[in-house]
Design goal:
The complex is a heterotrimer. By secondary structure, chain A is an alpha+beta fold. Chain A has 7 helices and 10 strands. Chain C is globular and about 75 Å long. Classes of the chains: A alpha+beta, B mainly alpha, C alpha/beta.
Chain lengths: 253, 396, 829
């Protein structure tokens, strides 16, 4: 039993979106189906205007509202802290997409923004959304945990790279991509993060570095008032900020 | 087994196939079937060829117009069930004349609503087994699905009992009470499905179930006023029935609409006053066509029309008001759906407000839904003697 | 670091041993792992069914010049993942956003499937070339026939090869010999004049090193960045970001100040962002230098000091050169007298629009923090005054003693490759000798009187072709460059390429290919062998090797092999030479012999080990300046003192062996420079303020930036890259013109409006995003869209090819295209 969690240091994050593309390729996502997105915010005006950004994976909440609303238990909280979707149970009602305060869920049946539609360029022969040549090897597909290319008409989202993390030996406090013993178990976005703005570990393990970071650098969770208690913590440092607004409220233009 | 040859316990045929449908019923049946058939064929064709890309929903706006339309029909169904219960549960005998018709309308609006829902879901058939076995008691949608399923079953039983003349037996009463409770729960949990969403403040409201039940009831009143007016024969109508249509129902219409308007006004004012993130949807709604249809067409004009006793008694005014309210509340359902979703959740500065307009396929679900309702209503009118309001056994 | 890499390597090898032999579909060296087997950690693997082998092949990312070593994961013959190689010193297991998208490039459905010839004689954007597939034999013979025909007529110079991003010995490295043996001066027409030539020239003019610098970012405490998108487009991007994560959280935290013309992610993430007016970075740098001197903040150990140690630098006051004793710089007082004494922050504030307070503050911070360094790139140098502005920035590095110091700048050391066993010199025949004797100028007119200091002039080739001057070209071959889309005034090329026989070697249906007569498609990077020495990085030498991860998907050929095959078909001994060279693998095996005597820090001492590890490198960098003294590495530490002669020979390769604040190199061309820039002849040696010329005739500066998703023409057709292209301004699936709300309001433009961007040269369209943080006098539109070919996703995506409105104006001395000079008018479309 672990409670996997992520720490994202916004002081280090450069907003490059490598996490987005690494995830996109590791998990064979459609263009724009950014399980791991980076959101950009602008505040203030010339000459002191600000540009900030916020990487946004699934928060894998302790009290996940998406889990609670799913009428079929297709979305569930795994014993190791993952919030996952069992694609064999999902009825595509999209209630979870309504209930997620962080906007991390996708329904790939919608109109594609990047055209021509890649789903038509690399169509699936067995009822999946698509089948790109670089899709993860067949044996790694795991629809019960939302891993691989999803069948049509179901909701998808970040799995914390369940197919990698779940292979980590029990009791591992941290998954460090620089440690060859844990690299292959580390989520793709954490592996590739060039400025090492991401840390991944067991929030329940007293030895884990993520726990230490959260304590020392005052890790915060997004939208804590929703009570979802994310397992993704942000470190704001001194030259970064958590965007105050989730929306366009403060826009002047 | 030949269903059409089934008979009631007292020996009458269950389906009155020997009588010929009257002109209006035939028109509704055939017209409804054609409209529903054509629109459903197109929708299904689009869904099979384009998948859900036929809808204008997106990951930023997951719930599209079908949900609003389905909400409209389901809440109307619950309201109709309540009206039928005014007699069967609460003994308000004034409502005898519409009780059976209301149950039938309640059943068919439920059927129409479920049909639209199935067209919105990714895997509608999976729902049939996945919801019952999941036991996800935390999900309002789980409760709602179960309640509405039970609701449909109880409505059918209740209708059967009434149809077979069992108006005032103990078991009819029990079924009626059960059906009433369930339909309150069902529409209430539909309200919870929205009202519990704290992450979407424009929806978040503990009184959302109450609002849903109330507007559902109001829709039902409009429905019954409208649909009865279509098949009403003025001559030869007994006094108690006339009183219901000329006085009681219009007054109920006016008073209920007043209650709806007051509730809605409270929502709008709260929304405009609040600085809370997501509540700006209320400000944006001031610029939305749907909002103005809701307020002016659905609320203000019918309220004005029905405000005097003379006008209320006028069948045409009743019919127009009922129709206007139905159009308004239809827009209101769509508008509510948009309000909760147009302020994006964590999509960044540049995402802007989510723009959503239903696609052609989505609009087609309106004729599809109403086509089903009209078709089944005409059929019911023909086969089930919906004007019946007295069981033979205890005729007064 | 060393131990870590060893351990890492062992981890992989252990897994590979467990998983067995290499899969049949994948070729080349590399470890074999099973992605599901966890044998490396001693735990069991997944129970159900046999797990196919996953093979990791070492390669080098191709999406930018950073040279990131990558691990290519292949299972069942399919590339399904690309990650940074953990044991690679540049990528360190990390990647930038482009790096992961390699599989999209490999499996691009629009790739050329084999050689083809044009059958439609008419050329134009909308002319279908009517390709006819041909065999490689026919394709190569076609080229050889043309080349031999020219050779017979003594017109070899009429054959030209234009190249873009070169990778090493197996592609651009082969071009020189080809030109020599065949007899054309036009075999190495590089693209550097649309790139770094001004930046390099600015540095070499004062420190003698015509190159980028290597940087010791990790140890610096102050980073002053001018016009370089360190966190977006500045090479090596991936490593820069690794550096960023380190320097921004180390103790003490490295302060970063940025001068740029728009809100870059770098500027946004930095401590200070100075939004300068385009083309005025030089003024800012000079004012900073002024403050450093007047406030006595310069590094006395490197620069020297006044004879009596009292700071005599006072604004506006000339000084006696004898009053100052310089150490490693040359001409400080002369420079002060001629230029710097009046370059106050107040003066610069007016020019740059940055406040006097900010300039002074940054100058004091920068001047009083050690180690500190100033870096600059194209934002500064792609202006008509770019050379002198670049020099003004680079001088700051001397003033704070950053040259060759810890946390400072150095040069890049070369790779000790072995020579090929055959020498091209032995195969130069009379035809080639006669050709050389004719001394034909290059078609791009480089080294002519017009361009005496230039290295390249790719942006001028179209004009040469159209005008037939200095002669008419017959055949032109393109390698990894697509100027018909990417050069300033790109439309000019459409005329030019109608006039010559065009050979395109791109794997992708580039714009060039639309005008091509012959297509000889290259492999993509995941299918080919290639060596790739690093661009300047941390100073110590490094070179990678690409090994095919999969067999070529189509009937394509390595560009190097194409060239060798053409060589084999050239008359005379040239053919013999290329028979001996054989193919690019032979070249790689031959050069790798150099590692035998120079085993790398990671133990690579042979071709085989190079293939296995993917990289050879040898740490440390051999030179260091410590407190004004130079030392060489003695095997354990920097303890071997270097004489002034050593320094001149190995590091500061100027005429004086000093860091020249009065450039002797430029003074040799004083007449040319004085004429070209309109400055006094006696001043040409000094870093100085020259007013930038703006072109296009508009009223708004137009900045065409590179975004992190832009991968130099290899990523134009990648749906994922397109879907994430310009995140800072909301550009997903499309490009937005960043425009200030007031600027927009004056023109009646609202957020999201389609706008017309036009100037003397032409018109493009884009959608406007109102961005309150940007300069009101500057609009920004990233380049990379507006393709009219290049595959189904690229083609027709947006109308805005920025190059169609960028005039072909160059910095007059170094001749790099001054693309940031352009101004435009913007109105609602």
């Amino acid at each position: 039993m672990a409670r996997w969690g992520m720490v994202i240091d916004l002081e280090k994050c450069t907003g490059c979106q490598a996490c987005t593309t690494a995830c996109s390729m590791e998990n064979s996502r459609l263009p724009g189906e950014n399980w791991q997105d980076v959101l950009f915010y602008n505040e203030g005006e010339y000459p002191s205007g600000k540009l900030t950004w916020l990487p946004r994976p699934c928060m894998h909440c302790e009290n996940a509202s998406c889990v609670d609303v799913c009428p079929t238990k297709a979305t569930y909280k795994d014993k190791d802290g993952f919030v996952l979707i069992n694609w064999d149970l999902c009825i595509g009602c999209k209630y979870c997409m309504i209930a997620c305060p962080y906007g991390v869920r996708f329904y790939a049946e919608e109109k594609q923004k990047t055209l021509p539609d890649v789903r038509e360029v690399w169509p699936s022969k067995d009822g999946k959304v698509w089948d790109p040549p670089w899709a993860m090897p067949e044996h790694m597909n795991d629809p019960k945990h939302g891993v691989g290319i999803q069948p049509r008409n179901v909701v998808s989202k970040c799995t914390f790279c369940y197919h990698r993390v779940s292979k980590a030996p029990q009791g591992t406090p941290d998954l460090d991509p620089n440690d060859p013993k844990t690299r292959e178990f580390t989520p793709a976005c954490v592996v590739t993060c060039a400025p090492t703005a991401r840390y991944f570990g067991d929030l329940d393990n007293p030895k884990s570095y993520v726990r230490q970071l959260i304590a020392e650098k005052c890790g915060v969770r997004l939208q804590d008032h929703t009570g979802n208690r994310p397992q993704v913590y942000y470190l704001a440092g001194e030259a970064a900020s958590i965007p105050e607004t989730r929306s366009t409220r403060t826009r002047k233009v | 087994m030949n269903i059409l040859a089934l008979r009631t316990p007292d020996g009458r045929p269950l389906f009155d196939l020997h009588s010929k449908p009257d002109g209006m019923s035939a028109l509704m049946m055939i017209g409804g079937a054609v409209v529903a058939g054509v629109s459903l064929s197109i929708v299904l064709f689009m869904l099979f060829t384009k998948g859900h890309a036929a809808y204008n929903t997106s990951s930023d706006f997951p719930w599209g117009a079908p949900i609003a339309f389905y909400m409209f029909f389901l809440l109307a169904s619950s309201g109709l069930s309540i009206i039928s219960s005014l007699d069967t549960v609460f003994g308000l005998k004034t409502f005898y004349p519409v009780a059976k018709r209301c149950i039938w309308l309640s059943i068919i609006t439920l059927v129409a609503g479920f049909t639209l829902l199935a067209l919105e879901l990714g895997n509608p058939f999976r729902l049939l087994w996945a919801i019952p076995i999941s036991a996800q008691y935390k999900s309002p949608m789980w409760w709602m699905g179960n309640f509405y399923s039970i609701d449909l079953a109880l409505l059918c039983i209740k209708f059967y009992l009434l149809h077979t003349g069992e108006w005032h037996s103990k078991r009819t009463h029990l079924i009626s009470v059960g059906s009433f409770v369930i339909c309150i729960f069902a529409s209430g949990t539909l309200g919870l499905a929205f009202g519990m969403m704290a992450m979407r403040p424009a929806w978040y409201s503990p009184v959302m179930p109450m609002y849903f039940i109330l507007t559902g009831f109001m829709t039902a009143v409009a429905f019954i006023v409208f649909f009865t007016s279509l098949v009403r024969r003025v001559n030869g109508t007994p006094e108690n029935v006339r009183k219901l249509f000329d006085d009681v129902l219009p007054r109920l219409f006016f008073v209920t609409l007043l209650a709806v308007v007051v509730t809605r006004f409270g929502q709008i004012v709260t929304g405009l006053w609040s600085n809370f993130e997501g509540m700006e949807a209320h400000w944006r709604s001031l610029g939305s066509v749907m909002f103005h249809i809701e307020v002016w067409v659905g609320f203000i004009i019918p309220l004005a029309l029905m405000s005097s006793r003379e006008r209320r008694a006028n069948v045409t005014i009743q019919m127009i008001s009922a129709l206007l309210f139905m159009v308004g509340i239809f827009a209101a359902r769509l508008h509510l759906l948009i309000m909760g979703q147009e302020v994006p959740l964590f999509k960044g500065y540049w995402a802007g407000y989510v723009e959503y307009n239903p696609s052609f396929t989505e609009w087609l679900l309106i004729p599809a839904g109403f086509g089903i309702v009209f078709m089944l209503y005409g059929a019911g009118n023909w086969l089930f003697n919906l004007a019946d309001h007295r069981a033979p056994a205890d005729a007064h | 670091m060393g131990d870590f890499e060893q351990m890492n390597r062992r981890g992989f090898l252990k897994t590979s041993a467990a998983a067995g032999v290499a899969g049949s579909a994948a070729i080349g060296g590399g470890a074999v792992v099973s992605t599901l087997s966890t044998d490396a950690t001693g735990l069991g693997s997944r129970p159900d069914g046999p797990v196919p082998e996953t093979k990791i092949t070492k390669n080098v990312c191709h999406q930018c010049p950073a040279r990131c070593g990558i691990d290519v994961y292949v299972t069942n013959g399919k590339v399904h993942a690309i990650y940074g190689s953990p044991d690679h010193p540049i990528s360190n297991g990390k990647l930038c956003p482009k790096g992961h998208l390699g599989a999209y490039i490999l499996y691009d459905p629009d790739r050329f499937k084999g050689p083809m010839k044009r059958t439609n004689p008419n050329k134009g954007r909308n002319e279908d070339p009517k390709w006819q597939a041909i065999s490689w034999e026919e394709a190569l013979n076609t080229v050889a026939t043309r080349l031999n025909g020219l050779r017979d007529k003594g017109e070899q110079h009429r054959f030209a090869i234009v190249n873009g991003r070169g990778w090493g010995s197996t592609d651009v490295g082969l071009l020189g010999n080809f030109g020599k043996l065949y007899g054309t001066p036009n075999s190495t027409l590089g693209h550097s004049s649309m790139c770094a030539d001004t930046s390099k020239k600015a540095k070499s003019a004062i420190d003698g090193n015509y190159s980028y610098n290597s940087y010791d970012y990790k140890n610096t405490n102050y980073l002053l960045i001018f016009g370089a998108a360190f966190l977006e487009a500045y090479r090596p991007y991936n490593n820069n970001m690794q550096v960023w994560g380190h320097i921004r959280t180390k103790a003490p935290k490295t302060k970063v100040a940025v001068a740029d013309v728009r809100v870059t992610p770098t500027g946004a993430a930095a401590d200070h962002l100075m939004l300068v007016k385009p083309g005025t970075d030089g003024a800012l740098a000079l004012a900073i230098a002024h403050v450093i001197l007047t406030e006595g903040l310069w590094d006395r150990k490197f620069v020297g000091d006044f004879v009596d140690s009292i700071n005599l630098f006072k604004t506006g006051e000339e000084l006696d050169p004898k009053s100052f004793k310089e150490k490693w710089t040359l001409g400080l007082i002369e420079w002060w007298n001629a230029e710097l004494k009046d370059r106050t922050p107040k003066w610069a504030a007016e020019i740059t629009t940055v406040s006097e307070r900010d300039i002074t503050r940054i100058a004091r911070e920068f001047g009083s923090t050690r180690p500190a360094m100033a870096i600059f790139e194209r934002g500064v140098t792609l202006h008509t005054n770019g050379l002198y502005s670049g020099m003004a920035v680079h001088v700051l590095n001397a003033l704070v003693g950053a040259m060759y110091a810890v946390g400072g700048l150095a040069n890049q050391m070369g790779v000790p490759y072995a020579k090929l066993p055959v020498s091209s010199d032995d195969f130069v025949d009379d035809a080639a000798k006669e050709a050389a004797a004719r001394k034909m100028p290059r078609i791009d007119r480089v080294k002519s009187k017009e361009l005496p200091l230039a290295s390249n002039n790719i942006q001028g080739i179209a004009k040469s072709i159209i005008e037939g001057k200095p002669y008419t070209l017959d055949t032109i071959m393109f390698y990894i460059t697509n100027p018909i889309y990417s050069a300033p005034n790109s439309k000019e090329w459409e005329e030019a390429l109608k006039k010559v026989f065009v050979i395109e070697t791109s794997p992708f249906p580039s714009e060039t290919s639309v005008f091509s007569d012959l297509v000889l498609p290259d492999h993509t990077f995941l299918e080919r062998f290639q060596d790739t020495p690093t661009y300047p990085f941390e100073g110590w030498p490094l070179t990678n090797i690409r090994v095919p991860a999969v067999q070529p998907l189509y009937d394509t050929k390595h560009f190097g092999d194409t060239l060798i095959e053409i060589g084999k078909r050239i008359k005379g001994p040239t053919s013999e030479y290329y028979q001996k060279v054989g193919n690019v693998e032979n070249v790689l095996k031959a050069i790798a012999k150099g590692f035998e005597a120079n085993p790398g820090s990671n133990g690579v001492d042979s071709y085989e080990k190079w293939v296995e590890k993917g990289v050879w490198y040898k740490k440390p960098y051999l030179y260091r300046q410590i407190a004004g003294e130079f030392y060489e590495w003695d095997g354990e530490d920097y303890r071997k003192p270097m004489s002034a002669e050593d320094v001149k020979k190995k590091l500061l390769k100027t005429e004086s062996g000093k860091f020249e604040l009065k450039s002797s190199y430029l003074e040799h061309y004083d007449e040319f420079i004085a004429n070209a820039l309109g400055i006094p002849k006696e001043k040409v040696g000094f870093p100085q303020w020259i007013k930038a010329k703006y072109t296009g005739g508009g009223d708004l500066h137009f900045i065409a930036t590179k975004t992190p998703m832009h991968g130099e023409g290899r990523t134009a057709n990648l749906p994922v890259a397109i879907s994430l292209y310009q995140p800072t301004s909301g550009g997903r699936n499309e490009l937005f013109l960043e425009i200030h709300p007031e600027t927009a309001a004056k023109r009646g433009i609202r957020n999201g409006d389609r706008v017309k961007i036009h100037n003397d040269l032409g018109t493009i369209y884009a959608r406007a995003h109102l961005f309150p943080a940007c300069r009101p006098d500057t609009v920004t539109l990233p380049f990379g869209f507006g393709h009219w070919a290049h595959g189904r996703w690229a083609k027709g995506r947006m109308e805005g090819n920025t190059n169609e409105i960028i005039p072909n104006v160059s910095e007059p001395i170094s001749n790099a295209a001054a693309v940031h000079t352009v101004t435009v008018k913007v109105e609602k479309a």
